[in-house]
Amino acid sequence: MFHRSTSAVSTKVETKNGAVTVSGVAKNDAEKDLVSKLAADIKGVKSIKNEMTTEKKTS
Known about the structure:
- The protein is built from one helix and four strands; from the N terminus they run ββαββ.
- The protein has one helix at residues 29-40, and strands at 11-16, 19-26, 47-50, 53-54.
């Protein structure tokens, strides 16, 4: 799965019988949501469980 707005390096994808689980670290909530949307667009995907966390911003 690739999209210029997501980082494949920090995204893990597991599949079983059409169920997709994504985990890793997203830069923000928008990137986390985008990963779910991209996975949902793949033929054969029946469900998505997004276990991604978002980076903590340091001040």
